[in-house]
Specification:
Elements lengths: L4 H17 L3 H4 L2 H11 L14 H5 L16 H4 L10 E6 L2 E2 L12 E4 H7 L3 H5 L9 H9 L4 E5 L9 E7 L5 E11 L4 E10 L5 E11 L4 E9 L4 E11 L4 E10 L2 E10 L5 E10 L4 E10 L5 E10 L4 E10 L6 E11 L5 E10 L4 E10 L3 H9 L4 H17 L5 H16 L25
Parallel strand pairs: 1-5, 4-6, 5-7, 6-8, 7-9, 8-10, 9-11, 10-12, 11-13, 12-14, 13-15, 14-16, 15-17, 16-18, 17-19
Antiparallel strand pairs: 1-2, 3-4
Length: about 450
């Protein structure tokens, strides 16, 4: 097979002037380095350990269109797509394909700045350049491809000492009449003592095939606290690569929640660096996959300083011919004493043709640590199933309840409460076969004006 990377490199060489013109100097400054990396290392193959379960070359082989000319949105996405989180009053920003929609005005108590890169580069000279691409410590082909082609990004700045009173919700929607590639960039900077909750909702229409690359960078200052929840509800027409990079200063705490309800071909790469004492990260992941869906999580947590803590907790429920892959590695650097790490991955295969791959790993170069990991792959507990049927619960309902309880063990760690309850409801609908996708975002009970089917209650 012809190397699919060539079409992207040829495109960049032919259109680099227009790509640069549609972007800001801070993004353009890293393109040549990304090009050299891609030319030197290329795309990973199935022999590449980190990508052994995800066929990147096959995913990138189709010829997708790009919005190089930066055509504006035809209408305000707030009018086309309605996505609201009940009882929370989240501040919502839309990213349609790779174009940032109008950013709503913040409330009087909300000091969080949500600014497209171009505007931030004008108003905050040097700020984007200081942090952009600063957390990407190692080569990853998808991150480099994103750096090469992405033209627009969104900055979320939580100022020093600010405690956000409302979550910030980013609705990422793929919607086009022809096959399209979208490259998104998100930079989150939480200054000293800042606290905030962010939600990323991923949706897509069914009118075309989509390839999405997204790089999310999080920089947490001393004692900053950020909870980031990512929810994917796309379809078989979607290929999604999401790279998350995070650097944590002393006493900072990051909570990452990832929930995959429906997907096509989904891969999430997460790298977290605990760079100073008493930093901590908690990562929770829940995947419900069926049919031919593919969900792959690859995680690296670096304990580069002592007295840091990490918790990885991932559960998969796989049906049909679905494939679920998990690789979690915790690295404890020399001298990072009193590191504490817990890692679990449990997989439930409810179909004999589903496949689960699990690789929890520890690499430790310090002697005063408390680190453990565990992994399971199995079927539904027949004893529990028999116990429930003996008490009059039909077999189908008993199976559903057991699957739901299995996933809820992860969901219960998600905040806020209304989000957790809504996700729990959607997971139940997913297992019952009642979760419909529509052309509008109704993740939290909103109504999409262009939806062909009514929204979920």
């Amino acid at each position: 097979m012809t190397d699919p990377l060539k079409q992207y490199l040829d495109l960049y060489r032919a259109e680099h002037s227009r790509i640069a013109a549609g972007s800001c100097p801070a993004m353009n400054a890293h393109r040549d380095a990304a090009l050299r990396q891609l030319e030197a290392h290329g795309l990973p193959t199935r022999r590449t350990e980190e990508y052994k379960y995800t066929a990147v070359r096959d995913a990138l082989a189709p010829d997708y269109g790009l919005n190089i000319a930066r055509l504006p949105l035809a209408a305000d996405p707030h009018k086309l797509y309605h996505c609201s989180l009940p009882n929370i009053g989240a501040r919502t920003c839309y990213i349609i394909n790779d174009t940032v929609g109008p950013v709503p005005t913040a409330g009087s108590e909300d000091a969080i700045r949500v600014v497209p890169f171009a505007k931030a580069d004008e108003e905050m000279r040097g700020f984007i350049g200081k942090y952009y691409h600063s957390t990407v410590q190692s080569y990853d082909a998808l991150a480099s491809l994103n750096t090469l082609l992405a033209q627009e990004g969104l900055l979320v700045l939580i100022p020093k000492g600010h405690r956000a009173v409302q979550p910030l919700q980013l609705v990422c929607f793929a919607d086009a009449k022809a096959d399209l590639m979208a490259n998104r960039r998100l930079l989150v900077v939480a200054e000293e003592g800042a606290e905030a909750t962010l939600l990323i909702c991923e949706h897509a229409s069914s009118s075309a095939h989509y390839l999405t690359t997204q790089v999310t960078e999080l920089v947490l200052g001393e004692r900053a606290r950020v909870e980031l929840c990512s929810v994917e509800e796309t379809g078989s027409n979607c290929t999604r690569f999401h790279n998350i990079y995070a650097d944590l200063a002393a006493g900072a705490a990051l909570k990452l929640n990832s929930v995959t309800l429906t997907c096509g071909h989904s891969r999430q790469t997460t790298e977290v660096r605990l760079a100073a004492p008493e930093a901590s990260v908690e990562a929770n992941g829940a995947v419900t996959a069926a049919a031919e869906e593919h969900a792959d999580h690859n995680i690296l947590v670096r304990h580069d300083a002592g007295d840091c803590r990490s918790t990885l907790r991932y559960k998969y429920v796989l049906d049909g011919n679905a494939t679920g892959a998990f690789a979690g590695k915790v690295y404890v650097a020399p001298g990072a004493q009193r590191s504490h790490s817990e890692q679990t991955n449990a997989n439930l295969c409810v179909s004999p043709t589903a496949h689960a791959f699990s690789q929890p790993m520890l690499e430790i170069y310090a002697d005063d640590v408390k680190c453990n990991h565990g992994s399971t792959v199995g079927k539904l507990d027949e004893t529990a199933l028999f116990y429930m049927r003996q008490r009059g619960i039909p077999e189908a309902e008993a199976r559903l309840l057991l699957q739901h309880a299995f996933v809820n063990d992860v969901l219960r760690h998600i905040q806020p409460e209304s989000l957790r309850q809504r996700l729990s409801l959607l997971v139940e609908k997913r297992f019952r076969g009642e979760l419909r996708r529509c052309d509008g975002c109704r993740m939290y009970g909103g109504t999409a004006t262009n939806a062909p089917t009514p929204p979920e209650p």
